[in-house]
């Protein structure tokens, strides 16, 4: 009798638990103010757009840019605003002045281009230089480095860059670089490149910094369809993240047309530059540094420090698969050969015997300088330029909501949060979808799916 009573009570308990889950699932699925469903419906039309093409496959029928060397106004209107870190030490810099402090050498530190003062127009795809036997050889710039004339470990003035002006966000000595690439069928990619004279690497367990290098190229990509911004991709070390343009936080700014201020206000997207590394993120706080999952000892940090407006000062070019065309007088003066410089924009990794060099089990203190815009996959069809080893299916989803930061400085609002529930919208009936949402929401499965799919 006692056993029968126990079994009956246990059965009733299971029934109550099941009914509770079912009721909650149905109530979740019937919510009328679910923001994800509304977003999902709004974005259905995007998938009916024509395909993005490579600039090398353009013809007179499918070109999106009809005039070479002209930067469309919609590109400037949608230029991201960059919040630099409050305690940043290495600010943006002018590449034209930066190169004055270097020689061009090969991997053995032998000069391949001799000039008292290097200029931007001296950067080329290849170089001819004199050999010891009296003959002349030619070397691809792929095997060259910009080697500094000063000891960069002593922080010469040119290595520090310039902070933005308070209020305007203008950097007089730190122009960005804008490459507008025709992707055909109404698509246009605007690559905003941000140059910093030095990359201060991360600290690991309080030791470091590791992975420092002279010269630092970061960039964001805004992809347009018929003049409307659709997507944004932002670089972070060897990878980055893609977003719907609508997902990013916006701020109201006065519009500039042909460099002149107008009384019209427009909304511009915000991105956040990490301390020292200058990696770009869409939110404030602590972010995993170049690893597939959050790893506390190796992190980037962002905050709402000084705001930089790259649209106020930039070198602009258009690219149609055939040539880079300067957009103004100063760009014509420097030419476009520097864009196709294949070498490193900073010193070669210091040898282990150099007293400035240090080593830890995963990284050296000073490593090679970076490659320039030519190696950032300007012809990409996907929003992502390349894929990490762990992204074995090479997916590059565009996130619908901002990926939140961690830590004490992180912010949480209606723009930031976890949202992998969008993956369940095709499940029918709705009550069954509600069951899955209840079981997965904020669970491990949801966390993993959100990370890999956006």
From TrEMBL:
Superkingdom as given in the UniProt entry: Eukaryota
Cellular component terms (Gene Ontology): fungal-type vacuole membrane
Parts of the chain that traverse the membrane: 12-31
Record GO biological process: protein targeting to vacuole
Entry keywords, A to Z: Membrane, Transmembrane, Transmembrane helix
Record keyword Transmembrane present: yes
Cited InterPro entries: VPS_Associated
Protein name (Swiss-Prot/TrEMBL): Vacuolar protein sorting-associated protein 62
Organism of this sequence: Zygotorulaspora mrakii (Zygosaccharomyces mrakii)
């Amino acid at each position: 009798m006692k056993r029968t009573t126990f079994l009956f009570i246990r059965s009733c308990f299971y029934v109550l638990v099941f009914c509770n889950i079912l009721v909650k699932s149905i109530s979740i699925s019937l919510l009328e103010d679910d923001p994800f469903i509304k977003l999902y419906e709004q974005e259905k039309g995007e998938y009916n757009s024509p395909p993005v093409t490579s600039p090398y496959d353009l013809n007179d029928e499918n070109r999106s840019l009809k005039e070479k060397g002209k930067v469309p106004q919609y590109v400037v209107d949608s230029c991201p605003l960059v919040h630099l870190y409050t305690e940043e030490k290495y600010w943006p810099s002018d590449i034209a002045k930066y190169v004055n402090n270097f020689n061009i050498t090969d991997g053995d530190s032998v000069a391949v281009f001799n000039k008292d003062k290097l200029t931007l127009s001296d950067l080329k795809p290849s170089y001819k230089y004199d050999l010891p036997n009296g003959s002349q050889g030619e070397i691809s710039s792929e095997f060259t480095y910009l080697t500094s004339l000063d000891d960069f470990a002593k922080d010469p003035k040119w290595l520090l860059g310039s902070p933005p002006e308070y209020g305007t966000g203008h950097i007089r000595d730190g122009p960005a670089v804008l490459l507008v690439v025709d992707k055909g069928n109404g698509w246009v990619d605007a690559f905003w490149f941000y140059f910093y004279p030095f990359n201060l690497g991360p600290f690991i367990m309080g030791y470091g910094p590791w992975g420092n290098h002279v010269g630092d190229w970061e960039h964001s990509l805004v992809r347009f369809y018929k003049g409307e911004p659709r997507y944004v991709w932002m670089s972070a070390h060897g990878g980055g993240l893609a977003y719907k343009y609508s997902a990013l936080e916006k701020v109201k700014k006065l519009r500039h047309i042909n460099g002149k201020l107008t009384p019209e206000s427009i909304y511009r997207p915000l991105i956040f530059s990490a301390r020292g590394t200058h990696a770009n993120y869409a939110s404030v706080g602590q972010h995993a540094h170049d690893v597939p999952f959050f790893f506390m000892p190796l992190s980037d940090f962002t905050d709402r420090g000084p705001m930089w407006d790259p649209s106020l000062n930039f070198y602009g070019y258009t690219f149609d698969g055939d040539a880079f065309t300067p957009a103004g007088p100063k760009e014509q003066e420097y030419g476009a050969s520097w864009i196709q410089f294949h070498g490193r924009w900073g010193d070669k990794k210091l040898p282990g015997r150099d007293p400035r060099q240090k080593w830890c089990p995963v990284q050296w203190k000073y490593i090679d300088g970076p490659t320039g815009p030519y190696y950032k996959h300007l012809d990409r069809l996907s929003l992502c330029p390349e894929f990490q080893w762990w992204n074995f299916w090479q997916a590059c989803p565009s996130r619908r909501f901002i990926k939140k930061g961690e830590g004490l400085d992180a912010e949480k609002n209606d723009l930031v949060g976890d949202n992998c529930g969008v993956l369940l919208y095709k499940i029918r009936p709705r009550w069954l979808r509600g069951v899955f949402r209840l079981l997965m929401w904020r669970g491990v499965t949801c966390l993993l799916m959100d990370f890999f799919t956006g």
